[in-house]
Structure formats: structure tokens, C-alpha cells
Amino acid sequence: MRYQHAIDRRQFLALAGSTTLAAGLGISPAAWAASPRQSLTVGTRIIEVNGKAATVFGITDVKGRSGLILEAAGGFNVSLTNATDVATIMHWHGLTPPFGMDGNPLSQQPIAPGASMDFSFDLPRGGTNWMHSHMGLQETQLMAAPLIVREGEPQMQEVVVLLHDFSFTPPEETLATLKGKGAAVVGSGTAGMNHSGMTMNGTDGATAMPGMNMGGMAMGGMGNMDMDLNDITFDAYLANDRTLTDPEIVAVDKGDTVLLRIINGAASTNFWIDLGQIEGTVKAVDGMPVQPLRGSRFGLAMAQRIDIEVTMPIDGAAVPVLAQREGDIARTGIVLAPTGATVTKIAAAADTQSAPVLLELERQLLAASPLSAKPVTRQIMAMLTGDMQAYVWGIDGRTFDNRQPLEVAKGDRVEITMHNMSMMSHPMHLHGHHFQVVGLEGQKVSGAMRDTVLVPSMGMVTIQFDADNPGEWPLHCHNLYHMAAGMMTIVKYV
User: Of 284, 333, 15, 23, nearest to 149 (Cα)?
Assistant: First the structure.
């Protein structure tokens, strides 16, 4: 997908990154003055995937560690160097910086090979976030890393898990196959139809009207809906760059409580997080605290994060933390293991196919700090549309190149209802803001604060946020192939 935009003088100043210019844009100097500038480098590396070498991207700090861990009080004060041979744009997913610091194609020019860019802004809160390329299809080649913001010293051991889907097939070839032949199995260079065992109501993807793949017209909250789950079958599914043939074994103490910070960095896969025989307590989603919720199995859509506190068994048994792909038997994961624990081999294929990830978790989540009571001053309906056969996705029947901005004014309490008219789920991400989920399938809720929410096939989700960060902010599906095929618009301050 090509992004064509003009950078005006205000945006150009924001990109300059100097102390004076940043302050002129309203960026508090307190953040970056309080701590030394940290450095990140985007480069390439070689990993082994099921016995085969793969060259992928990586984002590392000065010690060679993936991503960053920051203190909120010190602010975001980072210099990013591009050591690859391709230009890139880095998005700080989950943070809400001023427009020019967000890292998206609307607000900044790409960072050229060998060049650097400085980013400085306040961090109002801690949370589990991540960083990833927002240029082309680079994210699919693992140009992503954790971005953890803490508020003081950790109260327990923290374990970060970054999930990915991986293919040896170049992503450009994958997208070309999808556009040429409809929904495709793309892995190891092969292609074909994949509906993950689900049917499309006998239509084989036929559309009911231009721009809308209507299928069986079943609502997203219904268990018997006809829907298409996965465009692509990948060669592997990774947890911290490893498969279950050689999973990461994390040393923990028996009886201790561990905080799992799980990030779904997959390009085109929703997962079920499975703790097996033990339960955990959900403490936050998308870096925002929620009322504690107990459980052992949680749906996690693309780009979403979940923080789960898990208490290790006192008998010293190991605890696998697995992520199984929706509508599939494929899975990945890590193992939490006290000293001396027996770690048994875990198959990369589960015994049974998982269900679709829908709104089960969303219905149970309650924000720990919800939006303040305030009248809605701007209501917007956004229709999520798509044609599976042509592999064209859009919002209100328009692709990004033909977008109609969703206009808001500073100070508005904005309500957006997203109605999915396609037969695939769409994890919708809004840049520059956190929003509260306030409606699910037409029913009012006081749900979680998020930056990414899943809108199931034929489903409807309503969000609210305060328009307090002027700019032209992307609103898009975080299935990278859907976004590349057109499902993105902008929330524009006027």
C-alpha cells in the first residue's frame, strides 16, 4: 500500500526533534530532561524457525535487548537509528504522543537507511505497549518489539511474551496472492483456499453488494455464525521468536506470583491465551487497568495486550503459557518453570481446533478508571466493509486512498460505532487516544479502556474517547493485510 501525504510546516517542525521545536509544539521538556536519552536500533538478524534459518528485522537497545523498558516519570526520550537498507517508520503502539511523534505515515517522513530520529514526550502512565513498523508490510517480518512503561519498581517478577505469526514467503507475495485469488493459504510458498473449517453460507465468498461481503448475515455475538477466520496459514507461530519445538523456559520460584505481559504482535492471527489447569487474574488490557478478572483462557486479538498475574503451584510444577490460533490447532507459547521442575515436550498442534475469538472477554471487562461522565458531542457510524474475492477492504465502502475523514473538534466527547459488514473480524486500532468500550452488539456496557478493539464478523462495537490530542490520526484494522488492502481512515481534528 502506498501512503501519499503532504507534510505541512507544523508537522515538519515536529519531525525536527530539537528541544526548542518540541517545546513549541507543547511537548513538556520535563519528560526528556529528567532522564538520559535512550537509543534504539532497527537492524536485521537471523533466527531459526523449525530448523530453518530466517532473516528478519529486530529492534534493540544499546545492550542488544529487544525493545525498551522505561519509567513513566522519566518520559519518552529516545533516539531511533535505522541500520537497515530500507526506510522505515516506527509507531509507539499504546502511547499517546503529540501528532508528529506518533510514528505513522500521516505525521512523519520515513527514516532513511543510516539515519536517526529523536522522539521526546511525556508518559502519563505505565503499561504494556509495543513498537512496530508502520511502513508497508515490514511488521510481518518481525519489525516489532515490547515497549514496557513502569511506574516504580516491579512488585513481582515480570515475564514479557511477544507473539508473532511467521512465513518464509515474502509478505508482498502473500498480499499479491490474496488479491489475485481471494482468501489464500500462504506458507512455504503455497496458495489455496482456507476457511479454517468454517463455511461462507454456501456462497464461496460471493458478495451481496459491491464493497460488502455479506455471507450469512449472522450477528457477531452469535455462536452459529458463518465467518471466515484466517486468510493465511503461516509456517510457524512464535512466542519470543521461538516455537514449541524449542520454547523459552523462564525460571521462576515455586509459589511466587508472576506478572505476564502478553503482546499479540501477529500480523494476521488472533490467539487464545491458555493457562491450562491454573487460573490467573487479568489486571490490565492494552496497558490500561481493569477490574480484576479471574480465568484460565482469554481471547487476544491482533495488537491487543493483556496483563495476567499467575501464582505458581507450591509443588514446583511447571506452567505452560500457550497461545492457540483461533479456528485452528496451531499453537505456540513459553513455559514457566521453577528449579528442578519437569518440563515435558508440548506439541505445536493442539488436540482440538479452537473456537473463534469473539467478545466473550470484552463483555466481562470493566475499566478500573473509566471515562468521566460527559455528554457525547460527536457521534459517528463507521461501516467496516470488504470483498473477500477481490481482497479489497475499507471503511464506509472506501479504501484509504479514497478515504472520507471522520471529523471531530478538540474538546468533543466522541462516540464511534463500528458496524462490521464483512465475514471476517477486524481488530480496530485508533492512534493517539485511549477509548472506552461502551457498547457491544447494541447493548450498553462500561467496558475496558483500550486502543484496539475486536469487531467480530457482522458485529457492532461502540467506543467513546475525548478529543484532546489534535492531529490526523489513523483508525485502521490491525490485520496488516486488511490495512494494506484499504481498511484505514483518519480521525481528523477540524
Answer: 284
Q: Report the C-alpha gap between 134 and 429 in whole angstroms.
A: 13
- Say if CB 55 and CB 45 are below 8 A apart: yes
459-494 confidence digits (pLDDT tens): 999 999 999 999 999 999 999 999 999 999 999 999
Which range marks the domain in which residue 442 is found?
378-493
Cβ(411)–Cβ(459) below 8 Å: no
- For residue 129, give the amino acid letter: N
Q: Are residues 314 and 334 in the same domain?
A: yes
- Which residue is it, cell 489475485? 180
Question: Measured between alpha carbons, how far is 431 from 421 in angstroms, rounded to an integer?
Answer: 23
C-alpha to C-alpha distances, 21 to 107, 266, 408, nearest whole angstrom: 15, 36, 26
In a domain, 420, yes or no: yes
- Same domain, yes or no, for 268 and 404? no
Establish if 190 belongs to a structural domain: yes
Residue 42 sits in the same domain as residue 125? yes
Q: Which of 326, 357, 388 is the last residue of a domain?
A: 357
**For residue range 300-340, what is the model confidence (pLDDT) as tens digits?**
999 999 999 999 999 999 999 999 999 999 999 999 999 99
Q: Domain boundary residue among 310, 325, 357?
A: 357
Q: Is residue 416 part of a domain?
A: yes
CA distances for 183 relative to 193, 207, 322, 389, angstroms: 6, 14, 27, 7
Shared domain for 122 and 175, answered yes or no, is: no
How many residues in the chain? 494
CA angle (124 as vertex; 128, 450 as ends), nearest 5: 45
* Locus of grid cell 536485521: 44
Nearest one of 444, 478, 489 to 464, comparing CA atoms:
444
Q: Are residues 63 and 74 in the same domain?
A: yes
Q: Give me the percent of the chain exceeding a pLDDT of 70.
A: 84
Which has the closest alpha carbon to 97: 176, 25, 180? 25
Q: Could you give phi then psi for residue 262, rounded to 5 degrees? A: -105, 130
Question: How many domains would you assign to the chain?
Answer: 3
Q: Take residue 447 and report the three cell numbers written for it.
A: 467496558
Three-class secondary structure of residue 380 per DSSP: strand
Burial of residue 69, with CB atoms counted within 10 A of its CB: 0-12 exposed, 13-18 middle, 19 or more buried: middle
The CATH number covering residue 252 comes to 2.60.40.420
Same domain flag for 158 and 83: no
399 vs 413: CA distance, rounded Å: 26
Same domain, yes or no: 115 and 188: no
Please state, in angstroms and as integers, the Cα–Cα distance from residue 313 to each residue in 253, 273, 308, 309, following that order: 9, 19, 16, 13
Site of grid cell 511466587: 256
CA distance 302 to 280: 21
Domain identity same for 272 and 139: no
Whether 221 is in a domain gets the answer: no
